[in-house]
Amino acid sequence: MINYYHILGVSSNATDVEIKAAFKSKALSYHPDKHAGDKNMEELFKQVNEANQVLSNPYKRSKHDMMLKYGASTHGIANPIYRRTYPPQRRERYYTPQMSNWKATAYAFLFAFSVALIITTGMYLNKQYEERQKAELLAGRRTVFNKVKSVHHKGDLEQSLQLISGMGSFWYEEQDMKDFKDGLLKEIKDKGDDFLSAGEYEEAINHYDLLKDYSVSNTISYLKKMAAAYQGMGETGKALEMFQMMHLYGYRTTSFYLEMGMLYEDGMKDLEMALNYYQIGADLASSEYEVTIGSAYPIVINASMVPASHYDIYMKVAQTHLDLSQYQQAVDAVSWTKEIWDDSLWQYRIEGQALQAMGRSSAARRVIAEAKAIDPDFRLDVDSYDR
């Protein structure tokens, strides 16, 4: 059978934190976005995902461990064995004196009572022993918790988190410890948010990194903040890794693809990849129109029905085609958007520049005339654009 521990590269005693970290690393390495068309990598990615789903679920993991240790088993009711029966035989009756029966019953009762007494006494003593052990364990853990609070009081959030996380799961009697840990995680996140808002990106990353082994790190909000902090530090590659993780977690919106495209365009200077993500976002927007409005959406749609991010991504598709000297594609990209945003000078500038580059001067002059009807000062040689 498949050993999911081997797939993730961890031991069978790995903690939830180690399993989660191994999954993130493997998933990022084998993600299909990094190996387009490679079926082997796609299969590895599926296996890694399946391994994480099993090992991160206590019930499924327990079942998996049993199968590894003991192998597959079958369950069912065995076929009954039919035996040949014989007619009852007549037996001789023997009569025991009444006194003998009474003594036998008394001996049996005393024996059963003695066994029950021994078992009950053993259970009581064992319970007492376990309770003493538990009390000693709780006292020791309480000592560690007092140290956690002392370190936290000194302002050392990192060591506080390390110490309390090392305590593992909490007992029923330790609800205050669990509450403290939850509050500590929130405190670290809030401080990271404050640093991010203040533009202190490195401090924000330092705080967010403390949370990477906890459930908060699997949220889209956390990954977005990490990406924003890396962008602020100029580390576009790491920001893209955060976006790839969001994509892995199923985050797919027009705004997401717009941001991805802008990272490739502005940070990586890769217009081909930028156009790829802009186009995905534009196609996603169009599919939303078809679902909500119907297949006739190009005719009935107007600017009031469309979010601002959709305008941005359509214009980015057209502008990137133009920047890549794909002039006809640039013209096609704005051919219907002018019906939605008829006062947008950006698309007139894109169309006019593309037509001029193709040598279609008369068509370019027509576009300039349409734009001047909106803004008499319109010029194709102006670098800025007006929405």
User: Span from first to last CA?
Assistant: 60 Å
CATH architecture of the largest domain: Alpha Horseshoe
Biggest sheet character:
none
Number of helices: 17
What is the share of helical residues? 55-70%
Superfamily (CATH H level) name of the largest domain: Tetratricopeptide repeat domain
Unreliable parts = 73-86, 382-387
| Overall SS class | mainly alpha
CATH topology of the largest domain: Serine Threonine Protein Phosphatase 5, Tetratricopeptide repeat
Write a structural description.
The chain is mainly α and 387 residues long. The chain folds into three domains: 4-70, Helix Hairpins (Orthogonal Bundle), CATH 1.10.287; 149-241, Serine Threonine Protein Phosphatase 5, Tetratricopeptide repeat (Alpha Horseshoe), CATH 1.25.40; 252-387, Tetratricopeptide repeat domain (Serine Threonine Protein Phosphatase 5, Tetratricopeptide repeat), CATH 1.25.40.10. Helix content is 68%, strand content 0%. It has helices at 4-8, 16-30, 39-55, 58-70, 98-153, 157-165, 175-197, 201-209, 220-232, 236-248, 254-267, 271-292, 297-300, 308-323, 327-333, 345-357, 361-374. The longest helix has 56 residues, at 98-153. It is elongated and about 125 Å long.
Task: Supply database-style keywords.
mainly alpha, Serine Threonine Protein Phosphatase 5, Tetratricopeptide repeat, 3 domains, 387 residues
